[in-house]
Each structure stands twice: as C-alpha cells, then as structure tokens.
Write a structure and sequence with these properties.
The protein is an alpha/beta fold and about 325 residues long. About 35% of the residues lie in helices and about 25% in strands. The relative contact order is 0.20.
C-alpha cells in the first residue's frame, strides 16, 4: 500500500520537480521576493484588450517558459494539469488550447496549483506518465469583477481582505531526475466552519489548513521541526495568526518555521494589500519563484507546502451559503 495513515500517499519513486516558471504583475513586482520571478509585468493588460485575455497570456507564457527551461520537447509531455478562478477555468483552457498536450482542467480555488502537483505526482508514480505540467493563474482585476465588485465602484476593502495576485506559476514534473522531489501528498477534506464573510478568507481557510496539517503529522509520525519550512497558501496575515493559535491548541508549535505565500509575496507596510495575497496565482508563483529557488540552492531541504482554497462563487454567496474550504499539501 502506498497510502499511509488516513489520507497520505507515500511515493515509491519520488517525483522530480525538474523546472518551474513564474510571471507576475506590477504590484507583485514591487514586493519583497520580486527578484525570484522569471518575469514581472509593467501593466495589468500586457498588451491585451481585457484582463481575462491577459490572464490567459500569463499562464500560457509561464507554461511555455517552463517547457523551454526543462529542455524536454513538448511532444514528450504526457499531461497538463491547470486551473484558475474564472468560470469554467477559461484562463487555463483558452490560454493553453494551442499546446497540443492532453489537458485536465482542475479547480481547487487558491489550492489549485498544489492540487495539480498532487495529481501529477500520482500519475507519474503510478506509471501513467513520464512528464507532467502543473500550472495555475489568477488576476486581481478579473477576480474582483467576478467575485466582488467592479473596480470602477472603488469599494472600500476591510482590513481582513486579501489582494488577489496577478500572476501564474508552472512546475514541470518528471519521473527521472535529481530533485527536488515530491515524496508524499496529503489530500485534504472539505472543512466548513460556517463563515460567510468573503472578505475574511484567512479566518475561513485556517481550520482547513489545520485539519490537513494535523492529519499529515499523524499519518507520517513527523513533527513540525522535521521541516525547514512549513508554508501555507494563502491564509494571509489574519489566517496565519489564526493557524498559529489553532495549532497550539492541538499541541503543535509551528511558529519557528511557518510562513504563508500571501504574506511572503507583498510588503504589508509598504503596499496596500491589507491582509496579504491570495488567488490561484499566489501559491503558484511563490513556489515556482521563491520556494523552488530555495530548494535548488539547498537553503531549504524539506518543505511542507499546504494550499487552501475557498470553494465559493457569486451564486452561492447570493444564496447565503457559507464558505467551505479545501486544503491540499505536498512535501519536498
């Protein structure tokens, strides 16, 4: 059995992350980890007529960049797992329709990128593929228009609100390589604590992150100190503090090596992002840029990457539904 404990899968042959690529928007380019991104855009449109078309271009170019860096021909790629926040994942499907690679569109909200890493790794370890592309994107302007209010209204954002990252990240997974490796995955459950405030995603997502975090530790017998870094995405500043407190109540102190993608990508003091970053492109670009670099440089040897997503849309919000959360994690 490759499954250990209740939810964790341990791979017989750890999957190599061969290369990554990341592209971000202008606000992200002003953040503290900008130097780790492959490309930083000067405007939100990037030469396109709409924000949605710009997002499709961002994920397309990130995927093409990762393929080029891998030096493996596109015809040797078996599958592409990709997703975004827009209705029916149109940024991914439209952006990647000319790739001519078998495509599996996925949706886990902000956890989409890590969900792709989990699924791609299962395909490779199960001998269903040799090479797999995993990508995700988001765009501040298109997401605000779909999930909240048109930007033209200039609505005031509460302190708990997060800023949807304009950007994309892509990881090239392969069967044979020298690492960094994905050795385990722990798919998370849907956790719903009844929170309905779409401007407080961190509070809604933290319980899902806690559930998967504890499950992983119980399944593997590991402790927080086993990892050089425990990284969530994207709880932001509010959700990060909540997770710290919740973990302590369960007997786990993660403060020493814990951080969040939504915290890392922006400077809270210098940039008006309130509680930090969010969106499919947040975890995707932070891992594909900053975290992958730290792994390659051996500054981090073991990472626990936990991504959370808000499983909601405009329709469910109008019907008074709460915001259920999903969490996936993978390990390097």
């Amino acid at each position: 059995m490759k499954k250990i404990g209740t939810q964790t899968i341990q791979f017989d042959n750890p999957v190599t992350i061969l290369e990554t690529a990341s592209i971000v928007g202008p606000k992200e380019a002003d953040g503290p980890i900008a130097k780790y991104f492959d490309q930083c855009l000067e405007d939100e449109f990037w030469g396109e007529k709409t924000w949605e078309k710009a997002e499709s271009k961002i994920i397309r170019e990130a995927v093409n960049m990762a393929i080029t860096k891998s030096k493996i021909p596109a015809q040797d790629i078996d599958f592409c797992f990709a997703g975004d926040l827009l209705n029916q994942c149109i940024s991914s499907s439209f952006g990647l329709r000319e790739l001519n690679i078998p495509f599996l569109g996925i949706f886990g909200a902000c956890s989409t990128f890590v969900e792709g890493l989990c699924l791609g790794s299962v395909f490779i370890d199960g001998n269903g593929a040799n090479n797999v592309i995993c990508a995700a994107s988001s765009h501040f302007c298109s997401a605000e228009k779909q999930f909240r209010f048109p930007l033209e209204l200039g609505n005031q954002r509460p302190p708990t609100a997060q800023w949807t990252v304009t950007g994309a990240g892509c990881a090239f997974l392969t069967k044979n390589g020298m690492g960094p490796y994905i050795t385990h995955i722990t798919p998370g459950k849907i956790v719903d604590m009844g929170i309905k405030d779409s401007n407080n995603m961190g509070a809604a997502m933290a319980p899902a992150a806690l559930d998967t975090l504890i499950t992983h530790f119980e399944d593997t017998g590991r402790k927080p100190s086993y990892y050089d870094a425990i990284i969530t995405g994207d709880l932001g500043h509010v959700g990060k503090e909540i997770l710290n407190e919740l973990a302590l109540t369960k007997g786990y102190n993660i403060k020493a090596n814990y951080n969040d993608c939504g915290v890392l990508i922006f400077d809270k003091e210098k940039q008006d992002v309130h509680s930090g970053g969010s969106g499919c492109g947040c975890c995707a670009s932070v891992f594909s840029g900053f975290l992958f670099n730290q792994l390659k440089q051996k500054k981090y040897k073991k990472i626990l990457l936990i991504a959370t997503g808000a499983l909601t849309n405009a329709t469910s919000a109008q019907q008074g539904e709460s915001i259920p959360r999903h969490c996936s994690c993978s390990f390097y």
